[in-house]
Amino acid sequence: MRAWPRALVPAILSAALLPCAGASASTTISGVGPRALKGTAYLCTVIPRVDRLIVTRRAPERYSFTFPATVNVTNAAAARAVAASACALPVAPKSLPTCPTAFFVSYRVIFAVKGEKGMGGEAVNFDPTGCHSVTGLGAVRTTAVSTGFYWLLGSAMNIENPGLPTFEGKLR
Question: What is the pTM assigned to this prediction?
Fold first, then answer.
């Protein structure tokens, strides 16, 4: 297992946090809570306070993976980078095709937000097969054009060879 590439964290965070920083600042000025912002996913308004995440895989037994079904990421910088990357994913086109039922692998990522009870953040669900959809961030988003999301998430989880094929798993 390799260590988180710390040199990338500042660049990723600064690029991905710019749109969210403005939304968060407006909530402080107006006194409106972050959940009240129209069109902005809650997670995207609290990225600076994200301090860990839990990734849980759902897949039939006929698939094999090189990492555990549940991974707890306690590196706050890595968790914030994953949150920022998820918030930066493009909205899926309205013409997103119906996904075949043959694809069963999915993940649930729950982000912890410092200062909130329990995990505090909202859950994000993603499907690395089929439609490559991401839900839980307002509008349905897609990872179909962003292989960097899988690399970033896998690196945060300390997975060897992080990337889409690793998250898809292999049929036994």
Answer: 0.75
